[in-house]
């Protein structure tokens, strides 16, 4: 059987199979089978396509409404009055929360700011929201939610669709709850007009729906619904509310928190296990029924007597008969691969005639469903969108679909740009709206072929299962198929924080780097030594924007709707390596739980610890960075230097996910910039030695080494360069220690960043430094020159490589379609140990250029050698970082990026893209206008 036939047959059997066969037979598709393993760089390509940071292709369809940058597009609505020829898109992270556009030409008509509201929680009135924009039935008004606690209502000019202020209605914050992530915002979401003078709005954090009086500009009452309501639609006398968090918990349920609400959850991996729709009688304002649907119901649409609900974590559509008020059909709209693949991400839906059009957030596509087809799988094709579509509307006047794309064109890049947009880092995403004409059957076949290619659904990597594994295969470093034996038995996954490739390795001449951006190169000798012996990978990307989605991309093989839709305001939670939110976990679990299910020995150090406590000092007070640093000096010198200030095991870590609890080391410190990475290694290396002595080195070790995150120029903490030196030395010590164990001949170490948000890169802000270290990695190409590998990789290629080594099933479509890193490895071993390089930069230098701790600490005086500019940034850093050292990304990223750059370049160079070095006041003011102060990393 040919490979082409095998791939074609991998698509599941349903009416789409015929379309798939035609699509795969389209020119350039069937015989070319797209492989995600190329050497292209992220960003715009010469053929007009865009490579997204997760290595999916984006092939724009129809007209693109160019909204500007940086913004994210959360939701879209089309004015039902066709004479206005207008629509509106709800934004987040933009100067104006609403953009009105021409539905015919795609031209931007207006950038609209609502009228201010007195008594709201926040000073800014331009914040946006995660969803919630709609026109009144006659098109005369636009209603939209704002996550700083109000609903705006604007009058619509019937001639051109432009808006003028009408009223703004304050909504109350959630009831007092000590477990709330944000105690001040109701997080208003879906909104609907229920009459000429009435409306209803979802209050996501309140677990309620608010009844709006448009005449008096008041919220008349709240109606309790399910957990974390998302969207609302009206049909007749009833309103229907999708509840992402499902039903309220009972005393017999296992629960996990999400923004203070107990969510009915899985007792192993703590993900939400129910999803519901609340039915509200609008005449009485009461809930009359709760209907069970799929997981994480989000967008909805009504057509006739049917309500269609997009279940974003089930990859299904629930069809509810509104007369019977029950689910009468469930339609799968997931990835059409044999055996299934989680993560298509159904989140929005529109109905046109006999067809449903469903936005698939993680597949950058619209699934086309033939509703007249009563078979089990009535999907007949796909339409490509831009990056992460979130909502969809049908524009009958123009026979087109109108789609909001949260990330749109991506963050773009500084080398190649599309549509006049460029960016240096991960936060500068370019949300868009697509105007897509309804395709005819022939066009749909071609569009489906593009979606298959864009998502690599035709890749040979999808051939996973016992039928593909060779039971007689000889062990190799990276098996061709999951289920075949590997020469590698022990995997170490090390997660670092927030650096770009250029920052660390841009000076290495063999790689594709920019030396002018290599601001930390001189501080990281161990990372340079690693790429002299082990491969230099210069084309690896973190798909994420920040830690909240960066850690999930690593351990969950993706960041999904309930996580991405929060960004960048993060009203509900900031999930990540040390934060907890039941709604951001999926039923596929985690990398570690997949290994546990295989019976493997797994240990975790720091990663996904949700809470820590550090014992106080005897006599009162807390331990400082200097205390931990001096304790490390004492331990490493055998008591001849430093002082043993911090008692052993003073740090206690606690996890809330049961699968983590049993494998988490309780005393290895998680994210805390008040603890040097040397202290972490001083704890971990004896643990490793004991494991080795007992022949009990785990099959999978996951370890967080976080201090390359840095902490601005804050009093009592190292400067950025010195944090980097600490992190580099810790990594070098760890690699040396592993390379001297009995397990080393069968080990592989993967070192990656959770994201690369706090730096700039000349290719793309998502490009990160990655190190793959093993006796089986490819041999150096010359003396002291590691093999240079330009292959396009992401965090998912690392996951897939680990899965092939350890015989783990892929979790989602992202690691399923990803190529293992075959070219990084060879099958002959070089077991020589690695010797770490002593630090070339002091680890303990703080603002002013003098030691924080150690020799001279007693004579340290603040502001000793600082210029007025440096003093201003020091004062601002103290303000912005105070009390936040234990919370990842708790400081505004734009502020932090600037101070890191200025400090690392010795206050001599303007931030890339800017003409002058800035004083901090403007950046501090901008950060403090964030909806949740300083929680937008």
Could you characterize what this model shows?
It comes from Lichenicoccus roseus. This is Bifunctional YncE family protein/alkaline phosphatase family protein. Residues 1-32 form the signal peptide. By secondary structure, this protein is α+β, with helices and mostly antiparallel strands. Among the domains are: 490-824, Alkaline Phosphatase, subunit A (3-Layer(aba) Sandwich), CATH 3.40.720; 865-928, no CATH class. It contains 17 helices and 44 strands. The strands form 13 sheets. Strands 37-40-34-41-42 form a 5-stranded mixed β-sheet, with helices on both faces. The chain has a 4-stranded antiparallel β-sheet with strand order 4-33-32-31, with no helix packed on it. Strand 7 and strand 8 (108-112) form a beta hairpin. Helix 11 (677-693) packs parallel to helix 12. It is globular, with a radius of gyration of 27 Å. Residues 1-15, 26-32, 120-125, 414-423, 855-863 and 929-937 have low confidence and may be disordered.
């Amino acid at each position: 059987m040919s490979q082409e036939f095998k791939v074609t047959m991998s698509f599941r059997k349903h009416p789409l199979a015929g379309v798939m066969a035609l699509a795969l037979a389209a020119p350039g598709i069937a015989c070319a089978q797209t492989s995600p393993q190329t050497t292209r760089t992220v960003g715009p390509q010469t053929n007009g396509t865009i490579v997204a940071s997760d290595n999916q292709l984006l092939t724009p369809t129809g007209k693109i409404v160019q909204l500007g940058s940086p913004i994210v597009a959360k939701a879209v609505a089309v004015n039902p009055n066709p004479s206005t020829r207008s629509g509106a898109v709800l934004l987040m992270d933009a100067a104006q929360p609403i953009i009105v556009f021409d539905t015919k030409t795609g031209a931007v008509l207006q950038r609209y700011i609502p009228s201010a509201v007195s008594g709201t929680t926040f000073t800014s009135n331009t914040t946006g929201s995660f969803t919630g924009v709609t026109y009144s039935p006659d098109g005369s008004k636009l209603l939209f939610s704002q996550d700083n606690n109000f609903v705006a209502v604007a009058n619509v000019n019937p001639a051109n669709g432009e808006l003028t202020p009408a009223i703004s209605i304050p909504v109350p914050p959630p009831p007092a709850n000590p477990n709330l992530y944000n105690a001040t915002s109701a997080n208003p979401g879906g909104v609907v007009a229920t009459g000429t003078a009435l409306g209803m709005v979802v209050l996501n954090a309140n677990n309620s729906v608010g009844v709006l009086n448009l005449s008096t500009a008041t919220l008349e009452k709240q109606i309790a619904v399910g957990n974390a309501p998302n969207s609302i639609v009206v049909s007749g006398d009833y309103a229907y509310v999708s509840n992402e968090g499902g039903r309220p918990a009972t005393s017999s349920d296992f629960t996990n928190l999400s923004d203070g609400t107990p969510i009915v959850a899985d007792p192993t991996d703590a993900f939400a296990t129910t999803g519901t729709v609340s039915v509200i009688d609008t005449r009485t304002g009461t809930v009359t029924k709760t209907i069970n649907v799929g997981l994480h119901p989000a967008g909805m649409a009504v057509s006739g007597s049917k309500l269609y609900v997009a279940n974003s974590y089930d990859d299904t559509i629930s069809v509810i008969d509104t007369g019977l008020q029950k689910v009468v059909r469930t339609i799968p709209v997931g990835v059409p691969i044999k055996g299934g693949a989680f993560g298509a991400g159904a989140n929005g839906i529109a109905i046109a005639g006999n067809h449903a059009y469903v936005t698939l957030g993680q597949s950058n596509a619209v699934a086309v469903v033939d509703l007249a087809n009563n078979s089990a799988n009535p999907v007949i094709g796909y339409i490509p969108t831009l990056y992460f579509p979130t909502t969809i509307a049908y524009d009958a006047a123009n026979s087109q679909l109108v789609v909001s794309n949260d990330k749109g064109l991506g963050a773009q890049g500084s080398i190649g740009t599309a549509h006049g947009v460029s960016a240096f880092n991960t936060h500068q995403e370019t949300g868009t709206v697509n105007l897509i004409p309804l395709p005819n059957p022939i066009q749909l076949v071609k569009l489906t072929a593009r979606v298959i290619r864009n998502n690599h659904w035709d890749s040979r990597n999808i051939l996973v299962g016992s039928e593909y594994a060779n039971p007689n295969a000889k062990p190799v470093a990276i098996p061709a198929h999951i289920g075949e034996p590997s020469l590698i038995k022990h995997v170490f996954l090390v997660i670092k924080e927030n650096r770009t490739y250029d920052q660390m390795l841009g000076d290495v001449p063999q790689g594709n780097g920019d030396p002018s951006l290599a601001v930390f190169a001189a501080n990281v000798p161990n990372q340079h030594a690693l790429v002299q012996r082990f491969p230099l990978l210069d084309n690896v990307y973190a798909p994420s924007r920040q830690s909240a989605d960066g850690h999930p991309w690593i351990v969950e093989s993706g960041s999904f709707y309930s996580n991405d839709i929060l960004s960048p305001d993060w009203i509900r939670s900031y999930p990540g390596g040390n934060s907890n939110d039941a709604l951001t976990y999926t039923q596929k679990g985690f990398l570690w739980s997949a290994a546990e299910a295989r019976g493997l020995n797994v240990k975790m150090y720091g990663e996904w610890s949700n809470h820590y406590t550090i014992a106080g000092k005897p006599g009162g007070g807390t331990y400082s960075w200097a205390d931990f640093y001096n304790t490390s000096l004492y331990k490493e010198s055998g008591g001849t230097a430093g002082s043993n200030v911090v008692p052993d095991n003073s740090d206690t870590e606690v996890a809330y996910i049961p699968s983590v609890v049993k494998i988490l080391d309780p005393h290895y410190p998680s994210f805390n910039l008040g603890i040097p990475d040397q202290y972490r290694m001083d704890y971990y290396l004896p643990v490793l030695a004991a494991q080795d002595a007992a022949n009990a080195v785990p099959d999978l070790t996951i370890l967080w080494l976080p201090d390359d995150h840095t902490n601005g120029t804050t009093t009592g903490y190292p400067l950025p360069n010195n944090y980097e030196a600490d992190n580099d030395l810790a990594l070098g010590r760890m690699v040396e220690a592993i390379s001297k164990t009995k397990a080393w001949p069968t080990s592989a170490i993967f070192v990656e960043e959770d994201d690369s948000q706090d730096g700039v890169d000349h290719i793309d802000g998502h490009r990160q430094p990655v190190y793959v270290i093993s006796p089986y990695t490819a041999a150096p190409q010359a003396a002291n020159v590691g093999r240079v590998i330009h292959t396009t990789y992401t965090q998912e290629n690392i996951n897939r490589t680990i899965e092939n080594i350890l015989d783990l099933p892929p979790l989602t479509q992202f690691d399923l379609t990803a190529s293992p890193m075959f070219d990084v490895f060879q099958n002959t071993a070089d077991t020589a140990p690695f010797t770490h390089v002593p630090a070339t930069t002091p680890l303990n230098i703080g603002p002013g250029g003098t030691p924080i701790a150690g020799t001279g600490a007693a004579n340290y005086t603040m502001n000793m050698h600082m210029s007025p500019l440096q003093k201003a940034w020091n004062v601002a850093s103290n303000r912005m970082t105070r009390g936040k050292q234990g919370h990842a990304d708790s400081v505004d990223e734009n502020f932090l990026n600037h101070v890191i750059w200025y400090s690392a370049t010795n206050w001599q160079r303007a931030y890339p893209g800017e003409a002058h070095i800035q004083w901090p006041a403007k950046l501090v003011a901008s950060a403090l206008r964030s909806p949740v102060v300083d929680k937008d990393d």
